[in-house]
Amino acid sequence: xxxxxxxxxxxxxxxxxxxxxxxxxxxxxxxxxxxxxxxxxxxxxxxxxxxxxxxxxxxxxxxxxxxxxxxxxxxxxxxxxxxxxxxxxxxxxxxxxxxxxxxxxxxxxxxxxxxxxxxxxxxxxxxxxxxxxxxxxxxxxxxxxxxxxxxxxxxxxxxxxxxxxxxxxxxxxxxxxxxxxxxxxxxxxxxxxxxxxxxxxxxxxxxxxxxxxxxxxxxxxxxxxxxxxxxxxxxxxxxxxxxxxxxxxxxxxxxxxxxxxxxxxxxxxxxxxxxxxxxxxxxxxxxxxxxxxxxxxxxxxxxxxxxxxxxxxxxxxxxx
Length: 320
Prior knowledge:
mainly alpha; about 325 residues; 14 helices
C-alpha cells in the first residue's frame, strides 16, 4: 500500500522520543483491547497512534510500522482478509527498511502474513513466510525460546492444513517440549500445543490420543484462564467435534451446548463466535436426524450473520 509522507519538517530528538513513547503507549492500549475482542475500540485507538506516528515520525518509522501491523491483525481477526493482507504487507515493507530482517517484529509480521495466507489456503505463499519467520527467530532468540516454539507451531499448523501430517507432527512435538521447558505445564501456550497436537491426531484417526490431549489442555485452560474465557469455550468445542466424529452424539450435544452458553456469556449473542457455535449445534442435530431443532438453530445462526455481515471467528490468535 502506498501512502503519503505526512512529516514535512524535522523535529527535535526530544520531540521524537516523546512521539515514540506516546505512540507506543497507545499501541499497548490497542493490544489490550484486541485481547478483549473489542476490535472497534482497538482500531479507534490505533488510528490516533497512526496520526502521531505519521505527523511526528513519518511513514518509514518503527512506530508507524507497528500501527500497520496492528491494523492488519484486527482486519485478520474480523476476517477482512484483503485489508489484512494490505496492512501486513505495509508493515513488512516498513519494518524491513527500519529494523532490518534480523528483527523480532519483522519476523512477527512475516508470521502473521503467513497465517493469513494459510487461512486463505494459499499455501504456496504461506510456507516461505512461515519458514523465514522460523529461521529468523531461531537466529535471534535460539531454539529453546517460546517465540521459536510459536513459529514451529504455526509451521506445523500450515503443514497440517496442507495434509502433510508426517511433517506437522514432529514440529508440534518440538514446540510442546520447548514450551514445557520454558513456560511450564500450567501455561496457556503449553495448553495450545496440547490442543494443536490433539487436532492433528484427531485428523489422523488417533482418537484416544486426541481425547487425552484435549482433556489435559482443558484442565490447564480452566485452571489458568477460567471457564469464562474464549479458549475454554474452544476446548469444549473441540471435544464436541471429536465425540461427534466417534458417533457419541449425546456427549457431543452436551459439549456443544456448553460451548454455546460459554460463548454467549463471553461474547454476547451477536458475535460470530457465538453464531459459529449455534451453527455447530444445528449441524449436530442434522446428523442426529432432529431436523426441527436443526432448523431453529440454522435460522438463529443465519440471522446473526446477515444482521452484522459477520464471518467466522479465528481460533488462532496471531502475534500482536
